[in-house]
Amino acid sequence: MPDAPEVRDAVAAAYADPSRGYHDTRHLSEVLGRLHDLASNGVAFDSTPVVLAAWFHDAVYDGERDAEERSAAWAEDALPAVVSADVVAEVARLVRLTETHTPDDGDVNGCALSDADLGILAAPIDRYEEYVAAVRREYAHLDDAVFDAGRADVLRALAAKPHLFHTSYARQQWEQAARANLERELARLG
Questions:
Q1: Start-to-end C-alpha separation, the chain
Q2: Is 100 in a helix, a strand, or coil?
């Protein structure tokens, strides 16, 4: 966001909040990197709204259920001075989509952002374990039994999907590793 450094800096500061575990500047950087990877490998999407949605998708993150909605509202408030109204609307739609990661197959922007966001599931084992530990820190207020049950529910819901990723590139490159990571973590959770 070179034309809106104050917006960029405010969003970057939110990701840099020391109370965050996983949903921090590293996460933002990795999502942006995976979007670049997707684009470099022929996945077509509208770069401006998707990249802006990546910036905003976890701009608000405090473990509450409406964080995506509040992140989308922040984008709707901050971006009208920077981009057109249709881009603002698309950014907000995409941010809201990250709550479920269930874009329609024809939603190229939603598929790209969802894949980039969930790409951590396919990380090498060491990075995946860092991710799991960072998520646990974000939910430190929950005891282990409650956290483990909730985490297992999330992982089982993901594992039950016919595919974790929506773009052909992500399916080919990330699906197998992601499934192995999910299975390993679910086995550990019992």
A1: 44
A2: coil
Name the CA radius of gyration of the chain, rounded: 16
Which runs of consecutive H residues, i.e. helices, occur in the chain?
5-15, 25-40, 47-56, 67-78, 85-97, 108-118, 125-138, 144-160, 168-189
Span 5-189: which CATH code?
A: 1.10.3210.10
Residue 73, classified by CB atoms within 10 Å of its CB into exposed (0-12), middle (13-18) or buried (19+), is: middle
Residue 69 in tokens: 């909605």
Give CA–CA dist 161/138, Å, rounded: 25
Report pTM: 0.95
- Residue 151: closest CA among 123, 126, 121, 122: 121
Q: Could you tell me the two tokens for 186?
A: 């679910």
Taking the C-alpha atoms of residue 111 and residue 169, their distance in angstroms, rounded to an integer, is 11
Residue bearing the bigger pLDDT, 139 or 167: 167
For residues 13 and 25, give the distance between their C-alpha atoms in angstroms, rounded to a whole number: 9
Could you tell me what percent of the chain has a pLDDT over 70? 99
pLDDT in tens, 70-107: 999 999 999 999 999 999 999 999 999 999 999 999 99
- How far apart, in whole angstroms, are the C-alpha atoms of residue 189 and residue 16? 30
Domain map of the chain by residue range?
Answer: 5-189
